[in-house]
Amino acid sequence: MAEPLHGCRRCGLVCRSAIVRCPRCQTALTEDIAPSTSACRALLLAAMMLYIPANLLPVTRTHIVGYNMENTLFSGILAFWNNGAPGIAAIIFIASVAIPAMKFVVMIFLLLSTRRGVLQSRRQRTLLYHLLEWTGYWSMLDVVVVVVVSGLVQFHDLASIEPRVGILFFALVVVLTMLSVLSFDPRLIWKTAQ
């Protein structure tokens, strides 16, 4: 019972460490490579750095009958709020500001807790990780909305909406955050401090 076991990376069969090849699929069994958080940390740091220009640079340029206006995420939220659409403003705030910030905080928490070898609340941290993974699938929704609305609202001289460089930075933040979450190995949460 005390003999170490290894799982086959291809078929999942659990074998004794003395076995060199998997009896089921003949894959060479190697020592389990210790998961690292360096890629996760680097991607998260890059996403956090790009989050600043994503919020400061214009996301859209709106042209309505001779009137041109460029909006950042915050100025767009304020414009919806001031024009009597607080529901839309709240949705944009939650999807574009609150959720990315929450992802940063949760990933930092997961990285710090695994680095320190915290043994408490493993199940809750695993659920947090899966929540981050799930929200990643919906993160590009803001970018898609800007692109679709820009394509639909094209009335030549009357009205038009164009995406600006801020949406590119926001898309990069979303992609880098998703890659950061995917590069985190949740087995680190369950690893016992040696």
Fold topology:
Layout (H helix, E strand, L loop, with lengths): L4 E3 L6 E3 L21 H19 L3 E5 L2 E5 L1 H10 L3 H30 L6 H15 L4 H12 L6 E5 L1 H19 L3 H4 L4
Helix pairs in contact: 1-3, 1-6, 2-3, 3-4, 3-6, 4-6
Structural class: mainly alpha
Enumerate how many helices there are, as a single number.
7
Number of strands: 5
Rg, rounded, reads 23 Å
User: Helicity level, as a percent range?
Assistant: 55-70%
Spans of at least 5 consecutive residues with low confidence: none
Trace the largest sheet across and list its strands: 4-3-5
Shape: elongated
Query: In what range is the share of β-strand residues?
Result: 5-15%
H/E order of the elements?
EEHEEHHHHEHH
Distance between the termini: 20 Å
Q: Round the mean pLDDT to the nearest integer and report it.
A: 84
Taking the sheet with the most strands, its summary is:
3 strands, antiparallel
Integer count of domains: 2
Word description of this protein:
The protein is built from seven helices and five strands; from the N terminus they run ββαββααααβαα. The protein is mainly α and 194 residues long. It has two domains: 1-33, no CATH class; 35-190, no CATH class. The chain is elongated. Helix 2 packs antiparallel against helix 3, helix 3 (86-115) packs parallel to helix 6 and helix 4 (122-136) packs antiparallel against helix 6. A three-stranded antiparallel sheet has the order 4-3-5. Strands 1-2 form a two-stranded antiparallel ribbon. The protein has helices at 38-56, 73-82, 86-115, 122-136, 141-152, 165-183, 187-190; strands at residues 5-7, 14-16, 60-64, 67-71, 159-163. 22% of the residues are buried.
